[in-house]
């Protein structure tokens, strides 16, 4: 025993050191106590080492199975995209010909675009899409003085990622986008598989 405060005299420390140390309780007493606590639900049952190894092995096997499934799924095209299909991004630009929604009806326009996306998503064509904020983007890189939204009269307003069997099918889909109806421009770019 140590005396952290140094309050015990040497004689007191010697007396404490001379005290008889008790032997540990017999193993049978420890086992009986643990068993009683387990029965009352106060202690979780100890597992046998072989059982623990079996659980570890099962966990590793499940992990490997999930990893293999992830690899297999990663090689498949996105849901709805045919095996021979490609992905494209539709960049939605607003230029001088674009007719914005009347004040107070912006959400109606957003709902219209969302409805179009839902309809085409059920056909497996629109995979995702987002409306971008009205703020001017920030260019990071060597040409930081370049207009971030393309030519000064246009603004990148949003995008959709689509799946199509070929470029012709992607162009047909792009022509149905409500953005074109309102005078916006859709730039279609193929996404290179990586």
Describe the structure in your own words.
The chain has 194 residues and is an alpha+beta fold. It is built from six helices and four strands; from the N terminus they run αααβαββααβ. The protein has helices spanning 10-18, 27-39, 49-75, 106-122, 167-175, 178-181; strands spanning 86-94, 126-131, 155-164, 185-190. The chain has a four-stranded antiparallel beta sheet with strand order 2-3-1-4. The two termini are 66 Å apart. The model has no long low-confidence stretch (mean pLDDT 74).
**Series of secondary-structure elements, N-terminal to C-terminal:** HHHEHEEHHE
Roughly how many Å is the radius of gyration? Answer: 35 Å
CATH-level-4 superfamily name of the largest domain: Dimeric alpha+beta barrel
Annotated CATH architecture of the largest domain = 2-Layer Sandwich
Count every beta strand, where a strand is a DSSP E run of 2 or more residues.
Answer: 4
* Tally of separate helices: 6
Taking strands numbered 1, 2, ... along the chain, how are they ordered across the largest sheet? 2-3-1-4
For the record, the count of structural domains works out to: 2
What does the average pLDDT come to? 74
How far apart are the termini? Answer: 66 Å
């Amino acid at each position: 025993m140590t005396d952290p405060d140094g309050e015990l005299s040497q004689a007191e420390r010697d007396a404490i050191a001379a005290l008889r140390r008790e032997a540990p309780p017999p193993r049978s007493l420890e086992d009986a106590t643990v068993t009683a606590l387990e029965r009352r639900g106060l202690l979780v049952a100890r597992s046998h080492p072989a059982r623990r190894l079996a659980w570890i092995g099962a966990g590793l096997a499940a992990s490997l199975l999930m990893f293999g499934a992830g690899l297999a799924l990663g090689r498949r095209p996105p849901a709805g995209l045919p095996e021979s299909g490609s992905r494209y991004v539709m960049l939605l630009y607003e230029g001088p010909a674009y007719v914005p929604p009347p004040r107070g009806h912006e959400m109606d326009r957003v709902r219209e675009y969302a409805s179009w996306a839902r309809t085409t998503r059920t056909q497996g064509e629109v995979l995702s899409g987002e409306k971008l904020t009205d703020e001017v983007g920030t260019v990071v890189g060597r040409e930081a003085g370049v207009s971030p939204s393309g030519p000064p009269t246009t603004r990148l307003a949003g995008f959709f990622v689509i799946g199509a069997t070929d470029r012709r099918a992607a162009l047909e889909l792009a022509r149905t986008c409500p953005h074109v109806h309102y005078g916006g421009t859709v730039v279609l770019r193929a996404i290179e598989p990586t």
